[in-house]
Design a protein that fits this description.
About 75% of the residues lie in helices and about 0% in strands. By secondary structure, the protein is mainly α. Part of the ABC transporter complex CysAWTP (TC 3.A.1.6.1) involved in sulfate/thiosulfate import. Probably responsible for the translocation of the substrate across the membrane.
Length: about 300
């Protein structure tokens, strides 16, 4: 049987398989969603931050140096950072205990207690500041208990820490509670059956699983406390070099029409907060990776 040249050429030409169709995305509207998200982030985040950076860039160099080295400003920034750190560190164990109680125990009125945790989120900061001042003042319900002992809870640094703890505690609770709820109770039973005590079970089995969420919640509490103003300004007393916080120092610059100095202090606080958040996020990812490798 003879093969014609046309048939031979057709046999020699390799056949190309049709290109597989790209599977449809499981979530439609990816491009519009990305465009909306990018636009919102640029308008609400990048534009205000860019305006702040531009305001500092336009300021004279001597103004920048004077604003950053002013003793009153340094004292206010140091007080804000120190009080925020103390409040966040105190909120960490308290938040874990509250989250554990709400997640693991069926207490009477548990739903009411769960709703009370969210009160600082919904309560205006000025209202919380007035309420805390009324309670912690020497004539208040709580302050009157400590006044005979010579302990003042209001109009000093203790009052500032109390106000920051009030606003930051819910962040720890709401970050840790879902993790505890998803943690199976079988691992505690397994650790107990292997002879581990309750302390050993918590420290070696439960705590490593909770550490990433504890770090995240503590960081959120610190960041929230660092920029808190309304709940602190009433209970602090606002005495320069003693109880004046950084946001109040920024406001004092604005009231004296020194916008450049206010922008410099605000940018310094922003850089410090962003650097801390990036460092904590890196540490949190490391904890998650270490936990995954241990599992």
């Amino acid at each position: 049987m003879t093969t014609t040249p046309v048939a031979a050429e057709a046999e020699a030409t390799p056949t190309v398989a049709p290109r597989a169709a790209r599977p449809p995305r499981s979530i439609p509207g990816f491009a519009p969603s990305l465009a909306i998200t990018g636009t919102v982030l640029v308008v609400l985040v990048l534009v205000p931050l860019g305006a702040l950076v531009l305001a500092v860039a336009r300021a004279p160099w001597d103004t920048i140096v004077r604003a950053l080295t002013d003793a009153r400003t340094l004292a206010a920034v140091g007080l804000s950072v120190g009080a925020s750190a103390v409040a966040a560190l105190v909120a960490a164990p308290l938040g874990v205990a509250i989250a554990w109680t709400l997640a693991r125990y069926d207490l009477p009125g548990r739903r009411l207690l769960d709703a009370i945790v969210d009160v600082p989120f919904a309560l205006p900061t000025a209202v919380s500041g007035i309420a805390l001042t009324a309670l912690c003042a020497p004539s208040g319900w709580i302050g009157a208990l400590f006044a005979p002992l010579g302990i003042e809870l209001a109009f000093n640094r203790v009052g500032i820490a109390i106000a920051l703890l009030f606003t930051g505690l819910p962040f720890v609770v709401r970050t840790v509670q879902p993790v505890i709820e998803d943690l199976p109770a079988e691992i505690e039973e397994a650790a107990s059956s292997l002879g581990a005590s309750r302390a050993q079970t918590f420290l070696r089995v439960i705590l490593p699983s909770l550490m990433p969420s504890i770090v995240a919640g503590t960081t959120l509490a610190f960041a929230r406390a660092l920029g808190e103003y309304g709940s602190v300004v009433f209970i602090a007393g606002n005495m320069p070099m003693r109880t004046e916080i950084a946001p109040l120092r920024i406001l004092s610059h604005l009231e004296s029409y020194d916008y450049a100095s206010a922008a410099v202090v605000a940018l310094a606080m922003l850089v410090a907060s962003a650097g801390l958040l990036f460092a904590v996020n890196a540490a949190q990812r490391r904890l998650v990776d270490r936990g995954a490798q241990g599992a």
